[in-house]
Amino acid sequence: MAANNGVHSVAPEVVVDFLKEVMPFNGLDADTLNNLARHCTIDFFPKGVHLLKAGETEITHLYLIQRGGVKTFITDEEGVITLKDYRGEGSVFGALGIIRGTPANLDVETVEDTFCFLLPRDVFLKLINDQPGFAQYYLKTFSDKVVATAYTELRRHKWTSRGEESMYLFSCRAGDLVKTIRMVDANLPVQKCAQEMAKYKVGSLLIHEHNNPEKIVGIITDRDLRIKVLARGLDYTVPVKEIMSSPVQKVLSGTICFDLLLKMMSSGTHHLAVERGDKIIGVITSHDIMLHQGHSPYYLFKEIVSQDTFQGLYPLSQKIPEMIRSLIREGGKAGNITQMIAVLNDHILEKLLEMLHEEMGPPPVDYCWLLLGSEGRREQTFRTDQDNAIIYEDPVNEKQKKEVESYFSEFARRAIDHLVNCGYPLCPGEIMARNPKWCQPFSTWCSYFERWISAPDPEELLNVMIFFDFRAGYGTMSLAEKLRDHLISYSKRQEIYLMHLAKECMMSRPPLSFFKTFIVERDGEHKNTLDIKRQGLTPFVNYARVMGLKHGVKETNTLARMDVLKEDGHISTDLWAAAQEGYELQMQIRLVHQLYQLEKGLIPDNYINPAHLTEVEKRMLKDAFSIIERLQANLKTLFPVV
Asked: What value, to the nearest 5°, has the Cα angle with vertex 230 and ends 226 and 231?
C-alpha cells in the first residue's frame, strides 16, 4: 500500500466552501463548519494508489474527495475482485470503519489523480455524538448498506454470471460524464451555430442571454437544425433564440445515470443540462450514457418508439426480462426496476394506441386510458395481468353519446387484443377497457367512486381498491387529474369508508409465528412456500393507500406515497425508513424469484420457499415482515374502533 505523499494545511474558507456542497455537512451551522475546517488537512494521491485495504487498514481520518475519484471493491479468498462503486468529487469514504471502530470494510483505490480533505477520526466522532441529525444521515446510509448486502446475495446466488458485472448505471453520476460546456449568444444566427457545432463536433449548444454568459436561456440540438430550419426552409440568418428549446431541462451533477436515463425515456428528451450549485456546467446526452452501457434500456426504448407496425411492436415486451436481468445484476433496487418496467410498458401502450388512432381515426371526444392496480402504482413485475379502463368527456347529446360508445367499444376491443399479442395477459376479472362497465364518461366515473365510498360493499371492496390506484396512461391527462381531485375531496369526508379500508389492512397477518419462524403452506401445490405478494407486500400497499386517501396524497406508487406522508409529517421518519427498506427488500426477492423462474422456462409466480434463501436474506425478510405489525399499530391509533 502506497504511503501518503504529504499532508498539507489548507485555508479554512476553502474547506468551508467545499463542505457547504457536501451532504450531510451542508446542514451544519457556520460555527461548526468553521471549527471542522480548522482541523482539516489536504493530501494528494496519484492515480492507482491503494488507499485502504479491507480488514487491514486502520482508519485515522475521514476522507472527503475534493477533486478526482476512487473505486471501492472487495477481493475474495480466490483473488476475484468485485467492484462496488465509483466515488467522485464530494463523496466520502472511511466513515463506517470510524463509527464501528473497525478496520476498512472495503478496498479503496484512486482511479485518477485525487485530492482529499482529511478530517481526524476523533473530530468526526465528536460530530456524530453532538449532532443527532448528522448522525442519523450516516446511520441511514449504513442501514442501506445492510440492505444492499442482502441484494448482493440475491444477485450472486440466483444465477451464474453471463459476463462481467457492471455497476455503471447505479454508480456513475451526471457530473462524471459531462463534457466541456459549449455556449453561444441568443442573437447568433443559426448558420453560425451550425458551424460551431461542426467545429467542436458536438450535437448541442447551450444558449445564453444576449451579452450575459451567466444566464442560460435555452438549448439547440442538431435535430432542431434539421427539423426547425432545413425542413421548413427557414432563413439561416435568423437568431438562434427563434428556434431554441426553452427552458432547458436540468439535472443535478450528483444524479445517478439510471435516473438520467429514466428522465430521458419518460420525457422523450435526449439532452439534459447538468447543474452544480446554481451553475450549469455542461450537457449530457443519451448517447453519452449508451457509450458506457452496452445493454442499455435505451436501446429497447428506441426500438419501441421507432416501430410503425403492430407486428413489429409485439415481440418487444419479451425483451424486457433480459433487460431487467441486467439491471438487477448491475445493482438496481426494486424501486429502480419497477420504474423502468413501467416506463417501457407505458411506451409500448402509447405507441400501440397511436397506431390504433391512425387506423381508426381520431376519437369523437377527449379521453384518457387509465392504468389500474399495480400498473397504476408503477409496481409491475413480470407477466402482470392487464388492469385498465377508459374515461372520456361527457357527450353533449344523445347522437354524440351513441357515436362515442361505438368508437370506444371497438377501440378498446382492438387495443386489448393488441396488448395480449404484446404479452400482457387478460385480467381474469375483466377489469379492462373492453368491458362496457369500465369504459364510461367522466360523470359516471365520479358516481362510481361516490357510491363505493358512501356505501362500501364488502364483497366489492378488494376490486374497488384496484381502481383507487389509477393513473393516466395515455390521452388527455387532465381527465384523470380531475377524477383524482374528485376522489380525494370526496373520500377525505368519508371517515367510515376509510375505517373499512383500514380494517381490511388490519386483517393481514405477517407470515411469522410467535417464535419468528416463517409460516408456510403445509401441503398442496405451493407446499413449503409463502405468498410474498399477498402476505408481505399487500399490507404495505394497503397501508399507503389508506393513509394517502386520509391525507389527500395524489401519488399512487407505494414508496412515493410513503415519501409524501413522511414529508408532510403524517408518519415518523423511523417508520418511513423501515417501511421503505422492508418493501424494497420484498420486491427485490419477488423480482429475482420471478426472473429465475423465467430463465428456467417456468411461469412467474409469487410463492417463495424460505429454505432457498440465504441466512442474510432470511433475517432481512423476517425484519421486513415484522414492519407490518408497526404499520398496523400506527393505523390503530388513527382508527381505534377498527
From this structure: 85
